[in-house]
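Write out structure tokens for Fatty acid hydroxylase.
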Amino acid sequence: MNWEHWLLSHESGIRLGFFFSVFSLMAVWEVLAPCRQPSLTRRLRWTNNLGLVVFNSLLLRLLFPAAAMGVALFAREQGWGWFNHVPAPWWLSMLLSVIILDAVIYLQHVMVHAVPLLWRLHRVHHADPDYDVTTGARFHPLEIILSMLIKFAAILLLGPPVAAVLVFEVLLNASAMFNHGNVQLPQRLDRIVRWFLVTPDMHRVHHSVDDDEANSNFGFNLPWWDRLFGTYRDQPRAGHRHMTIGIHKYRNPKQVTWLSGMLSLPFKGRITGYAINRRQWKASDEE
């Protein structure tokens, strides 16, 4: 369809438009009503976190020019994937595709916590000593590449509509910035919203230094998977304003905040017996 090619050609502009709109909204919200007092200056963290975002974006464009929407179009043209073989109303294939892709991201997130080698990559995201809108896009380049390859495989197997992939990408990026925001919804509203969307309070628990809390609330967009698979945790033990964010072993700003430190962090320390949902951290742990 011509409109699919139009979406593909304007994909970057659409995604950037939503990115800057949501980012600006969250940044203003954080300034006007922050949930927590930051431990480091915004200038230091934002310069390095956003520098990593720019680097990752350029790398992905270089390695995967067509991106996820291009793979979806390729799958349709080749007749690959479930929805290219099973007749379904367009709206239903759109809805189910977004939900299934979100479930894949949830499972991927559990995997990078459960596999020690992959945790070394993912800890770049968790080692941020503060928690704000920029944390939501702070990932090591190797994890970004892995995530993209997993997404490609899911799209080839699923065969989703091209528009569904764009909707999913926009929702995922927007919700990641929202639920990593240094903001807080009113308690009653939060309890309602988190049945349909991962809220900042819900996901902030996942960034606790305590590993049983860090190994909970894996969802980025839809909160249902955590409740369904038993990884949901309501609140942090220390409360949102007093909980410690980050990783016990890695607290040096040069190592966890500077761009050079983030890029080299996966190669620091030993691969130990990191296990998902271990009861508590030990002082001697490397991870």
